[in-house]
Design brief:
Number of domains: 3
Protein name: FAD-binding oxidoreductase
Number of helices: 16
Oligomer: single chain
GO molecular function, one term: FAD binding
Largest sheet: 8 strands, antiparallel
Distance between the termini: 24 Å
Strand order of the largest sheet: 15-12-14-13-17-18-16-19
CATH superfamily of the largest domain: FAD-linked oxidases, C-terminal domain
Number of strands: 19
GO biological process, one term: lactate catabolic process
Pfam family, one: FAD_binding_4
CATH class of the largest domain: Alpha Beta
Shape: globular
Helix content: 25-40%
InterPro entries: Cytok_DH_C_sf, FAD-bd_PCMH, FAD-bd_PCMH-like_sf, FAD-bd_PCMH_sub1, FAD-bd_PCMH_sub2, FAD-linked_Oxase-like_C, Oxid_FAD_bind_N, Vanillyl_alc_oxidase_C-sub2
């Protein structure tokens, strides 16, 4: 690779390998054998073809900012990290007329936001609440989401360029035509033949080197809104009130129903950690004191409305207030009050399309920098949601960890972003975090509820929860598209 790509495209420096091996999960770091920095699709093809010749395992990353899911670290020590983000980081096109962009894997939420602002674009993207330097494309391919109206990030992808594990190059959709230009590639999602795009989400069949992503026109005015409910047991009522707002699309953004500690942890550290040595979760008394300090409830509801102006949106806000306050348990948080609450300001920026790293500050809740994300779903049924949160709280309590969750709600389904924060330098606490994750996953699976994404160290565990037929089908596709198994063996449980 030094000969084909140049000496600067390869690093085996000790500090580099150590940095790329780091992650936040409750297991040892996975140190790669080397890191490669391709600058083009042709470079990626050269790397994959060489890996096939030498039977070397590759682990491609975009920017490696999926904190809590594996970061830059490969599936196992000794794999070669292919860092697409260092040089393949260009916004190749912004189409103002049709509302899409074409990006390489290294384009981050922040860099696209900056590019749109530089152009004075009328378009906006949907950021995550995660790192601003996270990859737009990498997040979409891992089925990540945001809080805005275009929150389904993979659903916004249209037309990919992919280097298969065999080294062959394909373009999906209308890009498959042998033509000098492709007018429909990033606007026509369902082209002739099977739609192959989904094969390259959460898989190790190929390396996506560019793709189109649909953007939305920025509304003249975006008005975030906030409500809170006082008690843990109020979730049933909250979900029942949120569902019709999404089923009628009265609220165009996703609606987040977030518990107290998920928000507070971005602004505080656990006040009882030193006294308990991290062996117990925070007491209810201390939790209520923190709620009072930050003006938050046990559950906190947020979303945004669109309109021509603040005045035009005011009647819709009034309707929302009347809708939610049908329950005496729910309180409206006025905008001026919400802006003074730092944890709520993170959500406000998200709805305005602004990248923010605020939520990641929750890693300071406990010392040691450990976090793992557990990402199940739930139907938008208040009684079921209430049962699930009670059971999850108890599992976290048994393992001495705090229950932190943000439910990202759509019309029929909510993704529960559970964040386990733990002291990774304490072996006992790390072991409890591992046990807690597995207990939560087993509990949800018993009810037929699966995760939407998974940390790298749990991907084989989750694959083994699936029916044999689907596992065999995934393995058959792997053998067909990557016959020598060179791309990320073990990713999502596929060898």
């Amino acid at each position: 690779m030094r000969g084909e790509l140049g000496p600067d495209a390869v690093s085996t420096a000790d500090a580099t390998l150590g940095r790329y091996g780091e992650h936040t999960l409750p297991s040892p770091d996975n140190r790669p054998a080397a890191v490669l920095y391709p600058a083009s699709t042709a470079d990626v093809q050269r790397i994959v073809l060489a890996a096939n010749r030498h039977k070397v395992q590759l682990f491609p990353i975009s920017t490696g900012q999926n904190i809590g899911l594996g970061s830059k670290s490969p599936m196992c020590s000794g794999q070669i990290v292919v860092d697409l983000g260092r040089h393949m980081n260009k916004v190749l096109e912004v189409n103002e007329t049709l509302g899409y962009c074409e990006v390489e894997p290294g384009v981050s939420f922040q860099s696209l936001y900056d590019e749109l602002n530089k152009r004075g674009s009328r378009l906006m993207m949907s950021p995550t609440a995660g790192p601003p330097q996270g990859s737009l494309l990498g997040n979409a391919l891992d089925k990540g989401g945001g809080g805005g109206a275009a929150a389904d990030h993979f659903g916004s992808v249209c037309g990919m360029e992919v280097v298969l594990g065999s080294g062959d190059l394909i373009r999906t959709g209308d890009g498959s035509l042998e033509a000098a230009e492709h007018l429909n590639w990033h606007v026509s999602k369902y082209s002739f033949g099977p739609a192959l795009d989904g094969l390259f989400t959460q898989s190790n069949y190929g390396i996506v080197t560019r793709a189109g992503i649909w953007l939305m026109l920025r509304p003249p005015h975006i008005e975030p809104f906030f409500f809170s409910a006082a008690d843990d047991d109020d979730l049933d009522e909250v979900i029942e009130l949120v569902r019709p707002l999404k089923q009628t699309n009265f609220v165009p953004t996703q609606i987040r129903v977030t518990n107290d500690l998920y928000l507070i942890a971005a602004a505080e550290s656990n006040p009882e950690y030193a006294a308990t040595g991290g062996r117990k979760q925070i007491s209810d008394e201390a939790r209520r004191a923190l709620q009072h300090k930050h003006g938050l409830g046990a559950w906190n509801i947020s979303g945004a409305l669109f309109g021509a102006s603040k005045q035009a949106v005011a009647p819709q806000i009034d309707r929302l207030r009347a809708h939610f306050t049908k329950s005496s348990k729910i309180r409206y948080i006025p905008p001026e009050e919400a802006q003074a609450v730092a944890p709520l300001d993170i959500a406000r920026k998200n709805y305005l399309g602004m990248p923010s790293d605020g939520e990641l500050r929750m890693l300071n809740w406990r010392p040691g920098g450990g976090t793992a994300w557990f990402l199940p779903g739930m139907p938008m049924n208040g009684q079921i949601a209430h049962q699930m949160q009670k059971h999850s709280r108890e599992i976290c309590r048994q393992h001495g960890l705090e229950y932190m969750v943000s439910n990202v709600c759509g019309p029929r389904f909510a993704r529960g972003v559970h964040t386990l924060v733990f002291n990774r330098s304490d072996p006992d606490e790390a072991a409890r975090a591992d046990q807690c994750y597995r207990a939560l996953a087993a509990s949800y699976a018993e009810r037929g509820v699966f995760v939407g994404r998974a940390p790298t160290m749990y991907q084989q565990f989750h694959q083994e929860q699936r029916m044999p037929g689907i596992v065999q089908a995934c393995d058959a596709i792997k053998r067909a598209l990557d016959p020598n198994g060179v791309i990320a063996p073990g990713k999502y449980g596929m060898r």
